[in-house]
Design goal:
By secondary structure, the chain is mainly alpha-helical. About 45% of the residues lie in helices and about 5% in strands.
Length: about 210
């Protein structure tokens, strides 16, 4: 199997340049990821190892999902611990798990990517009780951005989009029935995206090129 040689990845980009401060570009980049993941889910497959390291930047400055070593069918019960711990949904890390929904697990990991794109750093080390920031989010989800060291100064100055905070709280929720989106379509229907125009492909490529 042969694939194109990509010039970089999101991990290298964020490590070098920090958060994506161009909000139109951020929405465009995230929309590309959602489109790719939606195609997988429509084919009854979940990725289960979504993280910025596995998002490549092509020579045309479009994003590519990579590393499909943990891809799993959504048509069968999933019960194994699959993926990278720092990017896993809490229901996968839970030692008492039975089975879990691969689509919703992907959406949790996608939320972690969105947090990193917007703020330039991870939300927490991993989604279990050993991590203080995860415990804080669980105890007081609406206060997470006010207390987190990466976001508190931005929150205090009113520089965080309220719609973004709502979307992230939902995507990173442990409430699989009422809060976490059940599909990529639901994520993309959120006001954080629905209220704003997304750059077309050529505009997105040019802005990402200048950002790099």
């Amino acid at each position: 199997m042969v694939s194109e040689l990509c010039q970089s990845d999101l991990f290298s980009l964020i490590s070098k340049a920090g958060a994506i401060t161009d909000r139109q570009l951020l929405r465009s980049m995230f929309t590309q990821l959602c489109t790719a993941l939606h195609a997988m889910h429509q084919a009854n497959l979940c990725h289960l190892d979504l993280k910025i390291d596995n998002v490549m930047i092509g020579t045309d400055y479009s994003l590519r999902l990579a590393d499909f070593g943990f891809v799993t069918s959504t048509l069968l019960p999933i019960h194994k611990m699959i993926g990278t711990k720092s990017s896993m949904a809490p229901e996968i890390l839970n030692e008492r798990r039975t089975t879990y929904d691969g689509v919703k697990a992907d959406i949790f990991s996608l939320g972690l990517i969105l947090f990193i794109l917007y703020f330039g750093r991870p939300a927490f080390q991993q989604a279990d009780e050993c991590c203080k920031f995860w415990r804080n989010k669980q105890a007081r989800p609406t206060h997470f951005f006010r207390l987190h060291p990466t976001t508190r100064s931005l929150y205090k100055e009113g520089l965080i989009d309220a719609d973004l905070m709502d979307l992230l709280i939902r995507m990173l929720s442990t409430d699989l029935t009422n809060e976490r989106p059940s599909s990529i379509f639901e994520v993309m229907s959120h006001p954080f995206f629905a209220k704003h125009e997304v750059l077309d492909v050529e505009q997105s490529r040019k802005r990402l090129q200048s950002f790099m």
